[in-house]
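Morning F.,

Quick status update on the modeling queue. The single chain you submitted on Monday has been processed. Sequence for confirmation:
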Amino acid sequence: MPNIKQQKKRVRIASQQRLENLRFRSTAKTLARRLREAAADGDDARVDETHRRLVSWLDRAAARGAIHKNTAARRKAQAAKLRASRD
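Structure tokens below.
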């Protein structure tokens, strides 16, 4: 455990950031799963809506640094490929 006041603060802030990053990563995985399920069901309206939400969420997560920008780009490409394959 840190003894210095600033280091105590850094531990506290890092813990909060870790939880926030976990929220972004977890929600991105959930949205990707929902997109796969919607594509499997053949529900075009739900696929479009879920794809839009997933891309938006990935952009937000990459902008915040929760995930790397190339990871976001890769997942967006996979989602677009999944969306296009249902046509």
